[in-house]
Design a protein that fits this description.
Elements (H helix, E strand, L loop, with lengths): L1 H7 L15 H7 L1 E4 L2 H5 L7 E6 L9 E5 L7 E5 L8 E4 L2 E4 L11 E3 L5 H4 L4 E3 L11 E2 L3 E2 L2 E2 L5 E5 L6 E5 L10 E2 L13 H10 L10 E2 L1
Parallel strand pairs: 9-14
Antiparallel strand pairs: 1-2, 2-6, 3-4, 5-13, 6-8, 7-8, 10-11, 10-15, 12-13
């Protein structure tokens, strides 16, 4: 019961006051917030709404970063330091919708795995879908660790899995200057098809002053 109550404290509560937090059962049910798309708003009688638990995070950390267009071609929005961030400091906590094995959304590139050592506390959830409610760190873009065997030193942050709440954080690998874009690895199992685009290749190779037209390989 202690483990369950600890997990429940990490869920977002919508429309409740502190008095309702006294009852863990009520807290768990109230933490299932309704996520509606525009189509479901128009068709509420035809489509049942889906109740999804959302992990509560410390959004105060987001004050040190800003989301704006990435420097990477086709990279969409990226995350930039708004203040100086020191090595080993926590950049932010990853929030989002908690997902089970059965509820894993295919084709969603915002998925992160919860560490197995935390499964007892997060049961039955094993994944975090950061597409919505993911906080600023959900917009950290990928940069390769190596290109053609050469260390790039592009990655200035790393995803860290924890055995207890908040379960997933991003930590600075080195000092990050204000205005610098924050990049990380997405791990060995991510789909890196976008790295095959010529403009992305030329961008990263250009930062290293490499000519990659005759050969190009990267390591995440």
């Amino acid at each position: 019961m202690v483990v369950r109550e600890k997990f429940l404290r990490g869920l977002r509560v919508s429309g409740l006051r502190s008095s309702s937090m006294m009852n863990p059962a009520r807290l768990f049910l109230a933490s299932l917030i309704v996520l509606l798309t525009s189509s479901s708003l128009l068709n509420t009688e035809e489509k049942p709404v889906k109740l999804v638990p959302v992990l509560k995070i410390n959004t105060d950390l987001d004050r040190r970063t800003v989301i704006k267009p990435s420097k990477i071609p086709g990279g969409g929005d990226g995350l930039f330091a708004d203040v100086a961030i020191k090595k080993d400091e926590v950049i932010g906590e990853l929030g989002g919708q908690l997902r089970t094995e059965e509820d894993y959304p295919s084709g969603n590139y915002y998925m992160a795995s919860i560490a197995e050592c935390a499964w007892e506390e997060t049961h039955p959830y094993r994944y975090l879908d950061a597409k919505h409610f993911g906080a600023h760190v959900s917009r950290i873009n990928f940069a390769p660790k190596k290109i053609n065997g050469i260390e790039t030193k592009f990655q200035n942050s790393a995803l860290v899995q924890l055995c207890e709440y908040p379960y997933i954080i991003f930590r600075a690998l080195r000092d990050i200057a204000p205005g610098e874009e924050i990049w990380a690895s997405y791990g060995p199992n991510y789909d890196y098809n976008f790295m095959a685009a010529n403009e992305v290749r030329d961008f990263f190779c250009g930062l290293l002053k490499l000519d990659c037209t005759d050969g190009y390989a990267f390591e995440p």
